Amino acid sequence: MTELQPICQSCDKKFVKWDEIVIFRGIAYHKDCLHEVPGVSSYFDKSLQQEFLGTGEDADFDGDAYEHFEELEEEAQDYDAE
Ligand SMILES: [Zn+2]
Known about the structure:
Elements: E1 20-24, E2 27-30, E3 34-37, E4 42-45, E5 52-55, E6 61-64
Antiparallel strand pairs: 1-2, 1-6, 3-4, 4-5
């Protein structure tokens, strides 16, 4: 069994502390990187693969990244400083 990585499978970005994430079958995604079909609560990866991931009931975890991963950065390191 592979250890859960704090990286979004869809966009390949590392999670930061306050990201909302959803985990399906041991793979984590940003909630924003998923397409949720209203009404039936089905989740698809928004990337090119458009993979069906499961329904809300299949999600192993739905919440903020810091609740699941320790030692995350407070903010993304590559944000645009203005
Ligand atoms: Zn993502």
